[in-house]
Design goal:
The chain is mostly helical. It contains 18 helices and four strands. Helix 11 packs parallel to helix 15, helix 11 crosses helix 16 and helix 16 crosses helix 18. It starts with a helix and ends in a 5-residue tail after the last helix. 37% of the residues are buried.
């Protein structure tokens, strides 16, 4: 039974789930132009106490002689989208899940995640101040809850996704780049590199919470996609002000240095070949999608250079428009106007 099949089975319960709406540097964080809070906002910041639901613990410790009863009880504990109403009456589905949790490989993955993330205290310590900042920028929002899963290491599904007020985290996608089951599942090393625990909290914002605040806009051109990526990174940087840009991007220090050193050359390449406003899937994938390197710039370049360029454009805009709120930034939809007003001109 392969890993992709594992994730399909465990996600049977997720039948209504949708994503919220997809110079030289040292180790210290780079100063980023970003939305600032007023003193009044800081004074009125809400207290945060995130709720973390451990679905995988309940799933793997379920009484297999009373699965229907157990799932019915879990229905009241977990969000409606993770266990559909009446799922406990589906005997075929329950049998499939029983096969999933009894598979030796999956049991080992669960055991490993439980050993690594017994109490999630570090995650909670990291996410709490970020949520405080989030609720200060968006005071009408509620504190999201977090629900952890063991998905079976399907690296083609999101490691983090959101639904309504809950953020779902696949813990088995944060086991460290050298985790043996990544190689066994055929996960490429450039994807495994971003399976480090340090990315879990920031991913909750970049991959889930941000979608509640982005406009309902179809991304057509490469520029649309780059600015969208830049907004998502700015959103996350605002909540994690001490996080380095390389960690926001998921780059190694060498990859970030390459992007910084070659920023001007990359931008001029895109301009000279009329790629900025290109709407072809091939161009967008080459610059935005997960890849080991960006094909146009050789195998020493990092992947997802469109994310890097988009972040620089957004930072340039915020530097030139310091009064812009995060809410206003995220709501902007005219990419061409945004680029022009950003004043982005890498040397």
């Amino acid at each position: 039974m392969n890993h992709r099949r594992f994730s399909i089975i465990v996600c049977i319960l997720l039948i209504t789930c949708t994503i919220f709406c997809g110079c030289k540097r040292k180790n210290a964080a780079v100063k980023v132009a970003k939305p600032e809070l007023t003193e009044e906002q800081i004074k009125t910041a809400k207290n945060v106490e995130p709720v973390i639901l451990r679905y995988e613990q309940d799933l793997f410790n379920i009484d297999q002689n009373k699965m229907a009863i157990s799932f019915k009880e879990m229905y009241g504990k977990y969000p409606n989208n993770i266990i559909a109403y009446g799922a406990w009456n589906n005997a075929e589905m329950l049998q499939s899940i029983k096969g999933f949790i009894n598979d030796p490989v999956i049991k080992e993955i669960y055991k490993d995640t439980e050993a690594k993330y017994a109490d999630l205290s570090e995650f909670k310590k990291t996410i709490t101040p970020a949520l405080t900042l989030y609720l200060t920028h968006f005071p009408d929002e509620n504190v999201p809850s977090f629900c952890t899963l063991v998905s079976g290491i399907d690296f083609q599904m999101p490691s983090v996704f959101g639904y309504d007020t809950t953020v779902f985290i696949c813990l088995d996608m944060y086991m460290g780049k050298d985790y043996k089951h990544y190689g066994m599942a055929g996960m490429p090393k450039f994807i495994a590199a971003r399976c480090e625990p340090k990315y879990m909290a920031t991913d909750c914002f970049t991959k889930a919470l941000v979608f509640k605040h982005l406009p309902d806009k179809t991304l057509v051109t490469l520029l649309d996609n780059m600015i969208d990526a830049g907004k998502r990174l700015m959103f996350t940087q605002t909540m994690f002000p001490s996080t380095t840009q390389e960690d926001l991007l998921g780059y190694s220090k060498e990859q970030y240095k390459w992007a910084k050193d070659n920023e001007s050359a990359v931008w001029h390449y895109l301009i000279e070949r009329n790629m900025v406003y290109d709407n072809s899937d091939d161009v967008i994938r080459r610059m935005i999608d997960e890849t080991p390197f960006t094909r146009d710039f050789g195998n020493t370049s990092p992947g997802r250079l469109g994310w890097y360029i988009g972040f620089q454009i957004v930072q340039s805009y915020m530097k030139n428009h310091p009064g812009t709120t995060l809410k206003d930034l995220l709501s902007m939809t005219d990419s061409q106007k945004f680029l022009k007003e950003s004043g982005y001109k890498p040397n």
